[in-house]
Amino acid sequence: MKKLLTILLFILPIFSIGQQIVSLCTESLLKEYFVNPYTNIAWTINPEISMNVDNNIVYITYSDIGTYVLTATYFNEACEHSDKIIIDVIQCLETMLYIPTSFTPNYDEVNDYFGAYGLNLNSFNMRIYNRWGELLFESNDLNNRWDGYYFGHPSQIDVYTYVIIYQDNKNRFFQETSTFTLTR
User: Which of 110, 121, 151, 155 is the most buried (most CB within 10 A)?
Assistant: First the structure.
């Protein structure tokens, strides 16, 4: 699975960067670095990947997850200086979201709260409404779940609606809207 990683190089001298360690998902397509376009720079890289330099833009093609080292050597008549950019290509973790269909807020320590359960989400918002469209609960925290109370009073046994908007680890937004049952 060949992927293209683009590293843009301009503006600051390479010797001001120092060693950089960058972690990228295999889904990543773009990463930026800043190097002065007026200096003389020689590029070397792991033999496992290919590189093309065009107008101070370095294109790197890698074939698998792993660690790759890009070395930039600045040189002129007076000095020579090298810096390394370590590119750690990791497997992207899938975003998962589970939303139950009922809960029992009866304080038996089993299923007492309603909320989503998920992994690898960048953002999360959950709103819970009663059958008349009144907002009963809202949370931007995946771990903050509804206890079945509204203004200090237990909500009635009924069917409720949730709207969950979340962003996955690939920065895509999704909306889940459905119902669940509160039983006691």
Answer: 155
